[in-house]
Specification:
By secondary structure, this protein is α/β, with parallel strands linked by helices. It contains nine helices and 20 strands. Strands 4-1-5-7-10-11-14-15 form an eight-stranded mixed β-sheet, sandwiched between helices.
């Protein structure tokens, strides 16, 4: 007899898990052990669906590295018992969490699909039901006995996106997420069509491990015309700051002012690491293409190429927390580890 597909739903919190309390009329979290009561269509899959719910549930604005460690450890502990995992999460920081998990779960060979909703699952017009149903179907999808999407993804409004390539770009539309520099891994219409040439499949089999060391001594500095030396200096001299994500203009351009480059050089000389990412939602950092980025390269700033800020932050936190030598961290930051760069 063919083994039933098993999917673990991990409800961390967020809008998707809210229903109206019949007594108070307020929105309260549902017990996802009884998710079939809210979404009876799930029973038609014939899958073995189990759920764990964080207690207390976490608003995505309160998500921290401790949350990521908890999600990763849950997957690690249940890895041999399930064919795929669906993580229900608030939308505000979902791109950060999906990015973090993509770097934390080394040796991953099963789907980890993040999803959520803009409207609670207990509301008539909710987008949560379709997101949940399709995320589960994708997490269970196999071909020749192997998962179709063995990586960390976000499924939202008909599109499956690589988690560490996503940004949240709308606070009110159902298509809340986009992946500006990588097409969808799958698109759901009448059928789910998978773009297999974009999906990352393991080339070397190794046991699943979790990287759980984080150094949160990271900051993001978004440049703007008229930014003052005092602002830059005070940030770069923050006690315990080890890494800076520098959001620059266009293809990686920044002021050529002596004081600005001097502050950057001093931070790097004292052991800090600076990664250059573009403020543009789409596109690539090409340091040296213009004179306004050549100074950054000379100062020792690393190119983030087409990485998102969300992926850059989580990747830097994990690498800084790995106790690796600075030179090795810089090499890893400059190269794609989990498909986060083209």
């Amino acid at each position: 007899m063919e083994k039933s597909v098993s999917i673990l739903i991990i409800y961390t919190g967020g809008t998707i898990g809210m229903v109206n309390d019949p007594v108070t009329g307020t929105l309260v979290p549902i017990d996802f052990r009884h998710i079939s009561d809210q979404v009876p269509e799930l029973q038609r899959f014939g899958f073995n669906l189990e759920a764990v719910t964080f207690d207390p549930v976490i608003d995505s604005s309160d998500v921290s590295p401790d949350t990521w460690i908890r999600i990763a450890n849950t997957i690690f502990e249940e890895y041999d018992h399930f064919d795929g995992f669906v993580v229900l999460h608030g939308t505000d920081t979902m791109s950060y969490s999906a990015s973090a998990l993509s770097f934390m779960l080394t040796g991953l060979e099963k789907p980890v699909i993040f999803t959520g909703a803009q409207l609670p699952i207990g509301v008539l017009r909710t987008d949560g039901k379709e997101n949940l149903i399709t995320a589960i179907e994708i997490a269970a999808a196999c071909e020749n006995g192997l998962p179709l999407v063995p990586e960390v993804c976000i499924y939202f409004e008909n599109k499956l996106l690589r988690g560490n390539r996503t940004i949240k770009f709308s606070s009110e539309h159902f298509n809340a997420f986009t992946s500006p520099n990588l097409p969808p891994l799958a698109e759901a219409g009448l059928q789910i069509r998978y773009n297999r040439n974009l999906i990352r499949y393991p080339t070397v089999r190794r046991p699943l491990t979790v990287s759980a060391g984080f150094d949160t001594g990271v900051a993001v500095l978004r440049l703007f015309p008229g930014i003052g030396q005092g602002v830059v200096r005070s940030l770069l001299r923050t006690k315990g700051l080890h890494g800076l994500i520098l959001e620059t203009y266009g293809t990686g351009n920044a002021p050529t002012l002596d004081w600005f480059l001097g502050e950057i050089r001093s931070f790097i000389a004292e052991g800090g690491i600076v990664l250059n990412v573009t403020q543009c939602p789409a596109g690539n950092v090409e340091m040296g293409l213009y004179e306004t980025s050549a100074g950054l390269r000379t100062a020792g700033v690393l190119s983030g190429r087409d990485i998102t800020t969300e992926a850059a932050v989580t990747k830097m936190m994990i690498l800084l927390g790995s106790s690796l030598p600075k030179a090795r961290i810089e090499t890893l930051l400059s190269n794609s580890l989990s498909g986060e760069m083209s």
